[in-house]
Amino acid sequence: MSQFDFESRIVDIPDYPEPGVVFKDITPLFDDAEALRAVVDEIASHFEGRGVTKVVGAEARGFLVGVPVAYRLGCGFVPARKPGKLPREVYSETYSLEYGTDELQIHRDALTAEDRVLVVDDLVATGGTAVATARLVEQSGASVEGFAFILELSFLGPRDVIGRECPEQEVFSLVKVS
C-alpha cells in the first residue's frame, strides 16, 4: 500500500453544486505530477498479475484514470460513453440516478469473451455507474476482474450495490469518505 497522502490533494467545496452538498474536487490529484503518478501506480499495482486484458472507464473522468492505468498494466482501454458518442454498433445499459436515469454504451466489438476487465472511475457514489459498466462488459461476453476508484463515498453504500450485482469482484478505492 502506498504511503501517499491522497486526501491532502482532494479539496472540499461546500455548497456545490447545491446548498448542503460538500463536493470532493479531485482535480488537484491530476495537476500534481507526483499525485497523478501515485494514483495510477497504486491502482495498477493493486491489479497487476490478475490477467487484466482491458480497462473500461466511464465517461468522462473514468477516461482520465483508466487510460494511464491501462497503459501501466500493458492492456487496452475501452471507453463507456454517453449515448450518441460512439460511431459503430453498441451495447447499451440504462441505470438509475437519484434524479432520473442515465445510459452508457460501449462498442460491440470492443471486448471479447477472452477479456478480463478492470472497471475504473474517478469516484463511486451510489454504485449505479459501476454496475451499469459491469453489465456492459457482461453483455459483450467478457468478465469483470474488479473495480477501482480514486474516491469512494462509502456513506452512500456503493459496495452494497456493487456487491449485489457483482459479488465475486473486488472493489478497490484509494480514499473512502465515511
Question: Could you characterize what this model shows?
Answer:
With 178 residues, the protein is an alpha/beta fold. The chain has one domain (7-177): Rossmann fold (3-Layer(aba) Sandwich). The chain has helices spanning 27-30, 33-47, 61-73, 128-139, 158-165; strands at 11-14, 22-25, 54-58, 76-80, 90-97, 100-107, 116-124, 143-153, 170-177. It has a 5-stranded parallel sheet with strand order 4-3-7-8-9, with helices on both faces. Helix 2 (33-47) packs across helix 3 (61-73).
Could you give the topology of this structure?
Elements: E1 11-14, E2 22-25, H1 27-30, H2 33-47, E3 54-58, H3 61-73, E4 76-80, E5 90-97, E6 100-107, E7 116-124, H4 128-139, E8 143-153, H5 158-165, E9 170-177
Parallel strand pairs: 3-4, 3-7, 7-8, 8-9
Antiparallel strand pairs: 1-2, 5-6
Number of helices: 5
* Physical arrangement of strands within the biggest beta sheet: 4-3-7-8-9
Number of strands: 9
Number of discrete domains: 1
Shape: globular
Architecture (CATH level 2) name: 3-Layer(aba) Sandwich
What is the overall pLDDT average? 95
Q: Which residues sit in consecutive blocks of at least 5 with pLDDT less than 50?
A: none
N- to C-terminal distance? 20 Å
Radius of gyration: 16 Å
Order of helices and strands: EEHHEHEEEEHEHE
Q: What proportion of the residues form beta strands (DSSP E)?
A: 25-35%
Helical fraction: 25-40%
Q: What is the CATH first-level class name?
A: Alpha Beta
Classification by helices and strands? alpha/beta
Biggest pleated sheet: 5 strands, parallel
CATH topology: Rossmann fold
